[in-house]
Specification:
The chain has about 230 residues and is an alpha+beta fold. The protein has one domain (about 45-205): 3-Layer(aba) Sandwich (NADH Oxidase), CATH 3.40.109.10. About 40% of the residues lie in helices and about 15% in strands. It has eight helices and six strands, in the order ααβαααβββαβαβα. Strands 1-2-6-5 form a four-stranded antiparallel beta sheet. Strand 3 and strand 4 form a beta hairpin. Helix 2 (about 55-65) packs antiparallel against helix 6 (about 150-170) and helix 3 runs antiparallel to helix 7 (about 185-190).
């Protein structure tokens, strides 16, 4: 392939830092990451062992490197370690979950959840040494001026995926928890009105003897289409 002439310098842009990887190494890395992330499971039983200092900060920094619509970076990640706050979050989440399981759930939905063995009780919200609450910025704020954010659901979803992968890579166990509605999280954590709770992630080490549901994943042929 002929060399492509370099692009002309442009204000506000930097040269891309990128090194081409040999095909064999690229395949090895892809397989290695696939095998590592295939071991990630949703955990509902946590050890009380503390998370090493700095690990959550590094994982959140990784999440914050995700792409976002118009580079608005419409996210806030709140780490909750305080036992009283975790207790308050648990009680509020269980109140919503109790209403869900007793008033709003359909028979079909109940059947879909049956293999997971879940109910309205969420003790892991206190047992996990930390919770990470991901907030989505419905709009931006510059001084007293409201600014538009773009593709916030997609952007925060991508960042959350980065975060889960980073936490797993650091040897931590996680759960993606989305009690509905989640307005109580902004209230308890004192977040501004433009921040909307997106995801609640208990994080820590799995309890000794932790069990997870034996759930098969779809095969590559079922999820991949080549045209």
């Amino acid at each position: 392939m002929a060399d492509v002439p370099p692009l002309a310098p442009r204000e506000g842009f930097l040269p891309l830092a990128h090194s081409r990887i040999a095909p064999e190494e690229a395949l090895r890395r892809a397989r290695e990451l696939r095998a590592e992330l295939a071991m990630r499971r949703s955990v509902r039983h946590f050890s009380k062992d503390p998370i090493p200092d700095g690990v959550l900060d590094e994982c959140i920094a990784t999440a914050a490197s995700a792409p976002s619509g118009a580079h608005r970076q419409p996210w806030t990640f709140v780490i909750v370690r305080d036992p009283e706050l975790k207790r308050e979050i648990r009680l509020a989440a269980e109140a919503e979950e109790f209403r869900f399981y007793n008033e709003r759930i359909t028979d079909e939905w109940r059947g879909a959840l049956a293999p997971l063995g879940t109910n309205w009780e969420k003790p892991y919200l206190e047992e996990a040494p930390a919770l990470i609450v991901v907030f989505r910025h419905a709009h931006g704020v510059e001084g007293e001026r409201k600014v538009t954010n773009y593709y916030t659901q997609e952007s925060v979803g991508i960042a959350s995926g980065f975060l889960l992968a980073a936490l797993h890579h650091a040897g931590l166990a996680t759960l993606t928890h989305t009690p509905s509605p989640m307005e109580f999280l902004a209230r308890i954590l004192g977040r501004p009105a433009h921040e909307r709770a997106f995801l609640l992630i208990p994080v820590g080490y799995p309890a000794e003897g932790c069990l997870v549901p034996a759930l098969p994943r779809k095969s590559l042929d079922e999820v991949r289409i080549v045209r």
